[in-house]
Amino acid sequence: MTETTPTGANAPVGVFDSGVGGLSVLRPIRALLPHEDLLYFADSAHAPYGGKSEAEVAARAQAIAAFLLEQGVKAMVVACNTATAVAIDAIRKRYPSLPVVGVEPGLKPGAAATRCGKVGVLATEGTLASQRFQALRDQIAAATGAQFLAMPCPGLADQIEKGELRSAATAALVARFVTPLIRDGADTLVLGCTHYPFILPLIEESALAAADGKDITVIDTGTAVARQLQRLLEQRALLNAQTAPSALAAFTTGNSASLSRACERLLQLSPPVMKVDAQENCQPEAKFV
Ligand code: DGL
Predict the structure, then answer these.
(1) What CATH class does 107-219 carry?
(2) Which of ligand 1's atoms lies nearest the C-alpha of 79?
């Protein structure tokens, strides 16, 4: 497919993730850029991405990018570490004039924050296995001397998709992933999956319980991603100058009522939600609800 016609400053920004995790990135984007209209896409019928093959995740990311372009977005945020790791280069190549912002585990801020030199990284299996992550890890480790302890967290994004932000089952999973990192000496934890900021209290509790009074720093990159989007829009004169309240609408390949509930619970927002065909071509199936 070739590039679509460039859109102007009044067009919306598209934000997507495997599910509700990208809402943790949408939140700082709304706070920093209150005049931007936003379209959020949750690929919940295909979540989680973390255990899928690179080819599957890359194909989903391309289909969603094409769908958002058809909705006329002027910029795109890949609000998913796993999709960024395997698909952002291909998306940029396919749409060379589209500003595209990705999300990567905050290894650089993690290295800057650690006092003992050991940083735990919580992320999906897919992110940690990707070449992109490993190259970033090696580069930051060489530049700073920091040591990164990677912890894949299978099942954790699922708990957040289910809305289990404080359940005993989620707490037990969090403890299973966080405790060994702290016991191995990490004093800083990087949230390398956009779902995890929604269970920050559980992650902090678990870390503190294992830390024996030591201070633990937790790094989330949502605000940095919002700033990068702001920079790109500014550079290309694409900031929206509207004074009217900005609009937010959402699409899901999963259940629209579930995404509505998630927006309400996680962001205290009630955007219109539209169900989209779960197949490759992402056709809208119905009107906004
Ligand atoms: N929120 C995603 C990420 O940042 C994906 C989680 C998943 O679908 O496994 O990696």
Answers:
(1) alpha beta
(2) 4
**What class has domain 13-103+222-275?**
alpha beta
**Minimum CA distance residue for ligand 1 atom 9:** 50
Q: CB of 155 within 8 A of CB of 224?
A: no
> Cα(234)–Cα(287) distance, rounded to whole angstroms?
33
List, for residues 150-206, the tens digit of each pLDDT value.
999 999 999 999 999 999 999 999 999 999 999 999 999 999 999 999 999 999 999
- Dump pLDDT digits (tens) for 145-154: 999 999 999 9
List the domain boundaries for the chain: 13-103+222-275, 107-219
Same fold, 13-103+222-275 and 107-219: yes
Q: Which of 76, 89, 95, 96 is nearest to 26 (CA)?
A: 76
Threshold 0.85, pTM exceeds:
yes
Distance from the alpha carbon of residue 104 to the mean position of ligand 1, in angstroms: 11
